[in-house]
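Protein record

Derive tokens from sequence
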Amino acid sequence: MAILKQHLATHQPRSLKICCLIDKQERREVDVPLDYVGFVVEQGFLVGYGLDCGEQSRTLPEIFVLEKD
């Protein structure tokens, strides 16, 4: 995301904002300032609403944290 933002900025837009549904900070390697965030998840593996685990749980209508056994 940082590289994409840097690339887009070279085109000198009037404004450039980043919007994300989920701000998952657990494995972030590069800090990217986010302008609009749906919600923050500190840690965990998420499934549902298009997110899957082994191609399972993708069609759930909501987002859930997958718990370890």
In short: The longest strand covers residues 19-24. The longest helix spans residues 2-9. The mean pLDDT is 89. The two ends are 33 Å apart (CA to CA).
